[in-house]
Amino acid sequence: MKKLSVVLLVLAIAMTGVFAQGRTEAANGGGKLVIYSPNSDKLVDAAYTFGEKYGIEVEVLSMGTGQVIERVKSEAGNPQADVWYGGVNFANGNTYKDYFEPYVAKGNEKLPEAYQNQNGCVTRYCLDGSAALLINVDVIKSLGRNPDDFKGYKDLLWPELKGKIAMGNAATSSSAWAELTNMLLVMGDQPYDEKAWEWVEKFCAQLNGIILSSSSAIYKGTVSGEYAVGVSYEDPCVGLLDDGATNVKLVYPEEGAVWLAAGAAILKGAKNMDNAKLFMDWLISDEGQREIGKSTARPVNPDIPNESANMPAFSTIHVVYEDLELCGANKAAWQARFDEIVQKTK
User: Fold this and answer.
1) To pair with 238 at 20 to 30 A between CA atoms, which of 82, 216, 219, 308?
2) Residues contacting residue 238 through CB under 8 Å, at least 6 positions apart
3) Which domains does the chain show, CATH number per domain?
């Protein structure tokens, strides 16, 4: 009986070692990772680079932020993806926190405090410029205007631009929401005042009913000449310039441009949990940040620069800072007001 107990003990120890080894292998790669992402192509490429490094089969399903939200909500309890990568801004990070797995990535404490994980769920990995006005210089010229005269938001009200501006839906698109709050910050006498909303009404009248459901349709439609101006964000606009587009120009509003930290989060109950956590760690590691720097976004690690020659230094731009708490608290109300204005000005 004693011999049997010893044998069973040895087997138990051996099996514990096997299980521990299995966990270690999972934590170090192999297997699969499924990602929902509204990110541009170059940021998506970073996820595939991660997969190649660790031998993980990465599957990225690209869609708008609104579509990601609907999937995450409808799949709660049985998530079909492991990670929501991009579009997890301050407001979304708090609004949908209950759908996220609590996790703080390794190295989080080394980031500037403003870019650290603030709610225990969201890993901030890059900075997105929320105010980027992409103009098609050929279309602007065809309207009888000098592209060099276009300096910022106020110029969106040029009469010639009516019906020729591409804008997303601030009620469903994270980039359009960021653009709206940027406008409200800088276009009044005081941040977010009624004068700013009056300007938003004039701007929406300029849209002539054009509200696009896809953020990519904005910059793609502008570079193709369908629109004179695309109200977009820095990342994909710089990407067009990096890819050789010569008929478009990126304008940072002279009234002021905001940069917001973009986030990623693990979905609660993710089937590939170890790989999801490894991805979060990698995103803010020096290696991951260098990959972000190869894209058209700015790393959250200030010691690692972006490599694009088409991305100007902050010192050349009028950078302003958003009241994240205020915007987050008013998100639902401001989105509803924006929708009312759009409906009224169609």
Assistant:
1) 82
2) 250, 296, 308, 310, 311
3) 31-128+260-299 (3.40.190.10), 132-255+313-345 (3.40.190.10)
